[in-house]
């Protein structure tokens, strides 16, 4: 009679680096979606994006000049402007979200490793 091999389910600390990257990427996108629903986070991103903007020859920021062109243009110009702006906001939010996600995943892995060590010591 042969014994079946013991298979322990993977915990958060058992993942391969590729799995960790996938977990970080998934959590990052989840955080971006949550932050896109927060007026405070979106406003912060817009403040930053507008603040980075260079000035054009008229003395306006390029951010403001592009917005004015979209508002003065047709619906297609508005749609294109706001689609581009949404992409910029998401990119901005993604930078902070990815840092948060990396920290959270590493914390989950550390907590799981600590719990396994405590269980091993208790046994």
Strand runs, count: 0
Low-confidence stretches: 1-9
Total of DSSP H or I helical runs spanning 4+ residues: 4
Round the mean pLDDT to the nearest integer and report it. Answer: 84
Textual characterization of the structure:
By secondary structure, the chain is mostly helical. Helix content is 76%, strand content 0%. The chain has four helices and no strands. Helix 3 (62-72) crosses helix 4. The model is unreliable at 1-9 (pLDDT under 50).
Chain-wise SSE layout:
Blueprint: H1 17-36, H2 39-52, H3 62-72, H4 75-122
Helix pairs in contact: 1-4, 2-4, 3-4
Short description, anyone?
This protein is mainly α and 123 residues long.
Could you name the key traits of this structure?
single chain, 123 residues, mainly alpha, 4 helices, disordered N terminus
């Amino acid at each position: 009679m042969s014994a079946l091999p013991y298979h322990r389910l993977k915990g958060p600390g058992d993942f391969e680096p590729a799995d960790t990257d996938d977990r970080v990427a998934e959590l990052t996108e989840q955080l971006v979606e949550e932050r896109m629903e927060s007026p405070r986070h979106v406003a912060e991103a817009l403040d930053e994006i507008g603040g980075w903007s260079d000035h054009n020859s008229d003395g306006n920021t390029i951010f403001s000049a592009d917005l004015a062109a979209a508002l003065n243009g047709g619906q297609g110009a508005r749609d294109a402007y706001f689609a581009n702006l949404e992409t910029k906001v998401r990119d901005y939010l993604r930078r902070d979200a990815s840092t948060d996600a990396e920290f959270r995943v590493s914390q989950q892995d550390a907590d799981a490793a600590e719990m396994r060590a405590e269980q091993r010591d208790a046994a």
